[in-house]
Design a protein that fits this description.
The chain has 245 residues and is an alpha/beta fold. The chain is built from six helices and 13 strands. Strand 10 and strand 11 (160-167) form a beta hairpin.
């Protein structure tokens, strides 16, 4: 069994976000980058499925050389090898196309990724890859089992859960609960240095979208504290100032 896991290089969740060039580019100065947390879940489940010599896990990332420390982190967690598509991931369409082109010329039983990346939260890449490869795409899964030919997948739906059976190749985006993220141990960190990391040049594709401008949320307004015993005053403020009642 061969599993391809897509990973994103994203800012640490504690990063203070700023922009440059008239708010058209993310300011990477001083930013610590990590493996996208949802992608770590997908990677952990892939490693579990391949334990005991049942298969191999390849991680793939679309990014420039600065993303290689993040890729090595994924190798330290337990991936067998890695691929970096040498390009800036300008949008979901471009990223999905590059991954799909690599997957077309390399046999994989399944492709896994996170439900979304925590920087853009688009939830688009998995479905686009499925479309490019003409394979089933199952989004936001909670459980994944595989018997060597058929995958049994669970998803949460309104009021319950949905169980899906998939035969053949597929792609799935993983959410919390699919697996517990793994922490690399010292042996994994040491072995990651020597694991194969292949660099592939990106394929040309038409650019269909472009970011015009980023905006940060408006700063929080002033807060008025109203003592609990002054409920009447609170009602007056909500009615006359906030005008929500």
């Amino acid at each position: 069994m061969k599993i391809l896991v897509c990973i994103s290089n994203v800012p640490d969740t504690t990063t203070k976000i700023t922009f440059t060039n008239d708010n058209t580019q993310f300011n990477t100065s001083g930013v610590q980058f990590i493996v996208n947390p949802y992608d770590e879940i997908a990677l952990s489940r892939a490693i579990e499925l391949c334990e005991g010599g049942k298969g191999t896990v390849t991680v793939i990332n679309v990014g420039e050389s600065a993303t290689e420390p993040t890729i090595r982190k994924a190798l330290a967690i337990g991936a067998d090898d890695a691929v970096r598509i040498n390009a800036t991931p300008r949008d979901a369409y471009f990223t999905a196309y590059q991954i799909a082109e690599y997957a077309k010329s390399n046999e994989f039983d399944m492709i896994l990724c996170g439900r979304e990346s925590i920087d853009y939260n688009g939830s688009q890449v998995a479905a686009m890859i499925g479309e490019f490869l003409d394979i089933p795409s199952i989004s936001i899964i909670k459980k994944l089992d595989y018997d060597g030919s058929t995958a049994t997948i669970e998803r949460e739906i309104e009021g319950g859960k949905e169980v899906i059976s998939v035969s053949g190749k597929f792609i799935a985006s993983c959410a919390e609960g699919t697996a517990e993220p793994k922490i690399p141990n010292m042996r994994g960190i040491m072995s990651a240095r020597s694991k194969p990391l292949q660099v592939v040049e990106a394929k040309e594709i038409e650019q269909l979208s472009k970011i015009q401008q980023f905006e940060t949320p408006a700063p929080r307004g002033a807060v008025k504290l109203v003592p609990a015993e002054e409920a009447a005053s609170l009602i007056t403020l909500l009615h006359q100032e906030a005008k929500v009642i």
